[in-house]
Design goal:
heterodimer, A: alpha/beta, Oxidized Rhodanese, domain 1, five-stranded parallel sheet, 10 helices, about 55% helix, B: mainly alpha
Chain lengths: ~210, ~200
């Protein structure tokens, strides 16, 4: 066999090998910039606070909350069963099995949504599935779930249903709503003294 | 890791230097392969010499295999490698003009510079023709612009158009190239050129 034929055979062999292996198996970023633009616009990564509250109360085993804030902030307050993966260590090997898996639904949260979105962008571009962002972050969580505001009398029935759910969720998750559930008596009791004080003050001023 | 220049692992200044070094190497190989003779390129058309086909297809296959294996090993991200956008209409007409120029002149732009470097006067005239063509194209650009931009398909990749994996396409190209090499050698026997 001449050298030329050996080279030809070698090329065909390499061609067969490359035809059989899957493409780009070790490419760092799986999604192109264009694909990211589409994903970001669709906002499909957002998970509403109400949904997360519902899953938390029903103790949905597929929910995995990930707190991307610093360990200090995590110590002060964090959502139930959340794990702390600050942004600086999100790519480290010990968390790899958590952020890159096909079973659970990871919901990233931070105080707002900026840091959680940073984390989500990194993970999504790496091609990891099942990562989501808590809509509005912890701030919105406190405003809506922990301290729900009663809708105005003219609101649609759905608003009231949402409010009732949030109140109940708040109670179950240990927020301010828990007080309001048992509170109607208390608030009613508080109101009369205030009125009385006003009544007393008025004559005092008159004297 | 790669590509090295778009990811700025190699800086812009080194990029130019490396381009220069590769250019010198390319010219050296062209000259060594005998491409500075205008008969080599013309021979491709008349069938008495198909070295050009072999050299360039071997180069293409090597590059294709290299890129795909590098990508497989994670050494290069093919999404970052620049792909020339396709303008179908102008590509076809341009190909015909350039092909005719190859046959008439016996050079391609690269080999003409190579041949001019070793003092061939016909190659220098050829280069003059290239510059004339560039001049007239640039001056006539407003008239030619619509046609120049026609049939725009963006950066097309053959395997995406055909809907097969890039690896399978490479294998097909290798087989096609080996077939063409064989055909080329048969042509060389059929239309030999004694005085060449």
């Amino acid at each position: 066999m001449t050298i030329r034929n050996i080279v030809f055979l070698g090329m065909v062999f390499l061609g067969v090998v490359i035809a059989m292996v899957p493409e780009n198996t070790t490419k760092p970023y799986k999604l192109t910039a264009e694909e990211m633009v589409i994903e970001v616009q669709s906002a499909a990564e957002m998970v509403s606070a109400d949904n997360v509250a519902h899953w938390l109360i029903s103790k949905d085993p597929s929910l995995q909350l990930i707190d991307v804030r610093s360990p200090d902030e995590f110590q002060k307050y964090h959502l139930e069963n959340a794990i702390n993966i600050p942004l600086s260590v999100i790519l480290e090997d010990e968390y790899r099995d958590i952020v890159d898996q096909g079973v659970k639904m990871n919901v990233l949260y931070s105080n707002g949504t900026l840091d959680s979105h940073k984390g989500w962008m990194i993970l999504r571009q790496l091609g990891f599935e099942n990562n989501y962002v808590l809509q509005g972050g912890l701030n919105y969580w406190f405003d809506t779930i922990m301290n729900p505001q009663a809708p105005s009398v003219y609101s649609a029935d759905e608003e009231f249903a949402k409010y009732d759910f949030r109140k109940a969720a708040s109670g179950a998750l240990g927020g301010g709503g828990a007080v309001t559930l048992t509170a109607p008596a208390k608030t009613k009791a508080k109101k009369p003294p205030i009125i009385r004080k006003k009544k007393k003050k008025a004559p005092e001023g008159g004297c | 890791m790669g590509p090295l220049v778009p990811q700025e692992i190699i800086g812009a200044n080194w990029n130019l230097f490396i381009a220069f070094a590769i250019g010198v190497g390319f010219g050296f190989v062209l000259e060594q392969a005998g491409f500075s003779s205008s008969r080599k390129l013309a021979g491709m058309f008349y069938g008495y010499d198909t070295v050009v086909l072999k050299v360039f297809f071997t180069g293409a296959i090597t590059a294709m295999l290299g890129l795909l294996f590098f990508s497989l090993f994670g050494w290069i991200d093919l999404n970052l490698v620049y792909v020339n956008p396709t303008f179908l209409g102008s590509a076809i007409v341009g190909g015909i003009i350039m092909g005719a120029g190859f046959i008439m002149g016996g050079f391609c732009p690269g080999t003409s510079v190579c041949a001019a470097a070793i003092g061939k006067v016909d190659a220098m005239v050829f280069i003059g023709g290239i510059f004339l063509g560039v001049f007239f194209f640039a001056e006539g650009y407003p008239l030619l612009k619509d046609f120049y931009m026609s049939g725009s398909y963006g950066p097309l990749k053959l395997h995406e158009v055909l809907g097969i994996s890039s690896g399978v396409l490479v294998l097909l190209v290798i087989i096609a190239a080996l077939g063409m090499f064989k055909l080329g050698e048969m042509a060389e026997k059929k239309w030999p050129r004694e005085e060449y």
